[in-house]
Amino acid sequence: MSSFNSLQRGIRQRAFRQRQEAQRTLCKKLRLLRVEDNHSLGNRPSAVVLEATLQSRRNSSR
To answer: How far apart, in whole angstroms, are the C-alpha atoms of residue 19 and residue 24?
Structure first.
């Protein structure tokens, strides 16, 4: 029984780490997009950034 619990804990920790990593890379990509947009659009949030954030929300809620 204890081995099962430790296995479960390991799976949960790995899932948590993967989620954090995905969040980090997404933030990095969004930041890059936003920087490009600031140069081209003069500080308006672009459809690309909005779509990316919506997409990430959809993925995380699943």
So the answer is: 9
**Cβ–Cβ < 8 Å for 26, 56:** yes
Q: From CA 7, how far away is CA 1, in angstroms rounded?
A: 10
Alpha helices by DSSP H, the chain: 2-41, 47-61
**Residue 2 amino acid letter:** S
Q: Give the residue-averaged pLDDT of 11-33.
A: 90
Tokens of 55: 């997409």
Mean pLDDT of 24-45: 73
Q: How far apart are CA 42 and CA 34, in angstroms?
A: 10
Give pLDDT, residue 31: 83
Q: What is the pTM of this model?
A: 0.44
